[in-house]
């Protein structure tokens, strides 16, 4: 054992960190937690039939605004949401200077989202409170694609803010890092927090990033989860995937499906 420890410390000095991988059974338990269930609302597609389009429960009446951190060159989701349902969006992203052409945004905040508000970052709590401090529970929508910053942002966000979101669509990244023990603990804490107030009703893997093999556990490198507030609906049997309204994120690459381990 001491020789193994010394070898590990020797690798530290060379800039290499070695850590046992999370077991396949623990990964399996986690994905079972987030298995999508069918709910009382049919799913509809908002946005393009490609990257930037998402499936949401058809329960949008009365939603006051969408919060959409992570701004791309196109904003088909936000545009479609306003055109069909007159729901405007608050946008945030430090990496761009202006919102995409043709987007009618309620506001644009030139900040990244993070655990705390400092320098070029703003917390989800401070961002939501700055525009909708008196918003009722179930009155907002969240569409988040922030390239891995979702974990710290969600874990640090108080439940009173998460409870304001009737529907959440969140793209989860860095799935290969789930195999690292410390990171896995953070991921598990994030999902346990979200599942206190919301159900998962859809999962769509991003075909642009492919599948990763985590010591026999296969996972999409990036996937999009749709949540609905528990107070809005009941859930039933495990949802059938893929959904008829799912489309590949990029049409020049083969589509991928969730591995069987995510559906059993």
Strand content: 25-35%
Content-based structural category:
alpha/beta
Total count of strands: 15
Instruction: Name the overall outline.
Output: globular
What ranges have pLDDT less than 50 throughout 5 or more consecutive residues? none
The helicity comes to 25-40%
What is the radius of gyration?
19 Å
For the largest beta sheet, what order do the strands appear in spatially? Answer: 6-5-4-9-10-14-11
Number of helices: 7
What does this 3D model show about the protein?
There is one protein chain. The protein is an alpha/beta fold. The chain has helices at 2-13, 24-33, 76-85, 124-132, 150-156, 159-162, 181-197; strands at residues 37-39, 43-46, 54-57, 65-69, 89-92, 105-109, 112-114, 121-123, 140-144, 165-172, 198-205, 211-214, 217-220, 223-229, 235-238. A hairpin with a 2-residue loop joins β12 and β13 (217-220).
């Amino acid at each position: 054992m001491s020789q193994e420890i010394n070898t590990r410390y020797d690798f530290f000095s060379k800039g290499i960190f070695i850590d046992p991988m999370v077991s396949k059974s623990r990964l399996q338990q986690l994905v079972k937690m987030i298995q999508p269930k069918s709910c009382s609302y049919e799913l509809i597609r908002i946005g393009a039939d490609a990257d930037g389009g998402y499936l949401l429960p058809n329960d949008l009446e009365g939603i006051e605004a969408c919060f959409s951190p992570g701004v791309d060159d196109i904003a088909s989701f936000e545009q479609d949401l306003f055109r069909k349902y007159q729901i405007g969006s608050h946008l945030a992203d430090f990496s761009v200077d202006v919102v995409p052409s043709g987007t009618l945004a309620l506001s644009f905040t030139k900040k990244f989202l993070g655990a705390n508000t400092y320098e070029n970052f703003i917390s989800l709590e401070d961002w939501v409170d700055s525009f909708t401090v008196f918003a009722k529970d179930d009155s907002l929508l969240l569409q988040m694609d922030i390239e891995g910053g979702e974990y710290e942002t969600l874990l640090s966000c108080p439940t009173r803010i998460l409870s304001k979101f009737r529907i959440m669509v969140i793209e989860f990244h860095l799935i290969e890092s789930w195999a690292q023990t410390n990171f896995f603990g953070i991921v598990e804490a994030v999902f346990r927090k979200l599942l206190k107030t919301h159900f998962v009703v859809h999962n769509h893997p991003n075909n642009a990033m492919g599948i990763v093999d985590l010591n026999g556990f296969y996972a999409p490198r990036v996937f999009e989860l749709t949540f609905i507030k528990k107070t809005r609906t009941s859930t039933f049997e495990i949802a059938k995937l893929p959904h008829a309204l799912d489309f590949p994120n990029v049409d020049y690459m083969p589509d991928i499906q969730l591995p069987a381990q995510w559906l059993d």
